[in-house]
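Milestone 3.1: sequence recovery, worked example.
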């Protein structure tokens, strides 16, 4: 299938963000000690979730949710730091027809019940 090339159009809106990857750890005297997370700089366009998406998906999105448009590839559960706010990659719809990947980001809330 032929891909649409949107990257050139959207690239002017790209801003840097930081991908935070856990880099494992090791057992020290019977306790798990995590290594410092790896911080990688990527670029993309992070936008608020549209009103139309909030309405069509049952309204389970909040004001703090964002959409990420990027040429990078992310996995569900990865953490992203953008302008001092951390988000987790929550959804990654299949976009095999485009060179831009789209991800739903949810804000990380400290002390939130699991």
């Amino acid at each position: 299938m032929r891909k649409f090339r949107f990257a050139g159009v959207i690239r002017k809106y790209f801003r840097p963000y930081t991908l935070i990857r856990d880099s494992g750890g090791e057992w020290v005297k019977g306790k798990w000690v995590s290594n410092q997370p790896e911080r990688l700089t990527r670029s993309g366009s992070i936008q608020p979730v549209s009103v139309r998406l909030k309405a069509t998906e049952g309204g389970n999105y909040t004001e703090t949710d964002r959409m990420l448009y990027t040429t990078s590839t992310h996995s569900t559960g990865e953490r992203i730091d953008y302008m001092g706010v951390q988000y987790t990659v929550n959804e990654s719809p299949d976009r095999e027809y485009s060179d831009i990947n789209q991800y739903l980001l949810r804000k990380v809330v400290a002390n939130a019940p699991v």
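Residues 51-56 form the longest helix (6 residues). The chain has one domain: 7-107.
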